[in-house]
Design brief:
Strand content: 35-45%
Shape: elongated
Radius of gyration: 16 Å
Helix content: 10-25%
Structural class: alpha+beta
């Protein structure tokens, strides 16, 4: 058996006022998940718990993302989380910044490859 990717979803989230990288990352993850209705587990005959979900979020300050907060967003499957440099911070004219995060959610299953 081998880990086979079956879907990739993308999302964007923001923290408009609080400069909260975790909030922006959670919003990006929710955006990626809530804009689709993947039935991959059912399509391949697996239980939902068999999903292998890899989440990568990109923000300007990845060390400020609480990856544990992302765990509450995913309803099932085995998860891995990573925060990397990316996203965008936009300076406000009166000081402060708006934080934008991007998220990629990769869904895989442990199954034989077909070629």
């Amino acid at each position: 058996m081998a880990k086979q990717r079956v879907a990739v979803e993308f999302g964007m989230g923001t923290s408009l006022r609080r400069e909260d990288y975790t909030k922006a990352a959670v919003s990006a993850l929710k955006d990626a998940l809530w804009h689709n209705s993947l039935t991959m587990a059912q399509a391949f005959g697996f239980p939902k718990e068999a999903m292998l979900v890899d989440v990568e979020v990109a923000v300007q300050e990845p060390d400020k993302v609480d990856l544990n907060a992302l765990k509450d967003v995913l309803p099932y499957g085995t998860h891995t989380f990573k925060a990397v440099h990316g996203g965008l911070d936009i300076a406000k004219p009166d000081g402060g910044k708006t934080v934008i995060a991007n998220a990629a959610v990769i869904v895989s299953f442990d199954m034989e490859a077909t070629s």
